[in-house]
Write a structure and sequence with these properties.
The protein has 184 residues and is an alpha+beta fold. The chain has helices at residues 102-106, 120-131, 157-167; strands at residues 4-7, 10-16, 19-24, 27-32, 35-38, 43-55, 62-75, 78-82, 86-91, 94-99, 112-119, 134-137, 146-152, 170-175, 178-183.
Length: 184
């Protein structure tokens, strides 16, 4: 009854109300009960809002993207209050806040990949999680190739890889659940 806490390793979208139905002494009342999301890098105190958190262990930073309302990000002794349209990235206790297009970070809720000048490495990390595949590179420089586009998560893997091949300097060889990235 004192607080609501969620621990997250992965990605989740939250719509949280500050008022919560609480049972006390056999009676139900609406009270403000803190809602906190904890990841390995940060704690997010929700102040009535809609937001997305990306906190996978294989990502270099934890990203909290605020769609509506407000949240307070705390990492170590630092904290920041986000406004709608802002994203906090947290890495090793440092919090950086910047404006973003929230649709890019919440597109997965609509079953889409949304890439805007995204590196191939970041794209293929998402693809690997979604399609349960492993990715290797013939040249690490390929990881920095950048792509832009919106693709449904309903397409099969080969369709997605073909789209990336048509728009970039890469090609893919697949064998079972393994994808090898090669230069064109």
């Amino acid at each position: 009854n004192k607080e609501r806490v969620v621990e997250l390793d992965g990605e989740a979208y939250f719509e949280v109300k500050t008022q919560y139905l609480v049972a006390k002494n056999g009676k139900e009342t609406h009270e403000k009960v803190p809602f906190i999301v904890k990841t390995k890098e940060q704690a997010v105190q929700v102040l009535g809002t809609q937001f997305n958190i990306n906190a996978y262990n294989d990502e270099a930073v934890t990203k909290t993207t605020l769609v509506e309302g407000s949240v307070r990000i705390t990492s170590g002794k630092k904290d920041n209050l986000l406004s709608p349209g802002q994203q906090a990235t947290v890495h090793e206790g440092n919090i950086d806040v910047h404006k973003v297009d929230t649709e890019q970070y919440t597109a997965w809720k609509s079953n889409n990949f949304n890439f805007s000048e995204e590196t191939l490495e970041n794209i293929l990390r998402q693809v690997a999680r979604w399609y349960d595949v492993t990715v290797t590179y013939s040249d690490d420089k390929l990881k920095n190739e950048r792509f832009e586009g919106l693709v449904s998560r309903d397409v099969n893997l080969s369709t997605l890889l073909n789209a990336l091949e048509k728009t970039g300097n890469v090609r893919f060889e697949t064998q079972g659940r393994q994808i090898k990235v090669l230069r064109k």
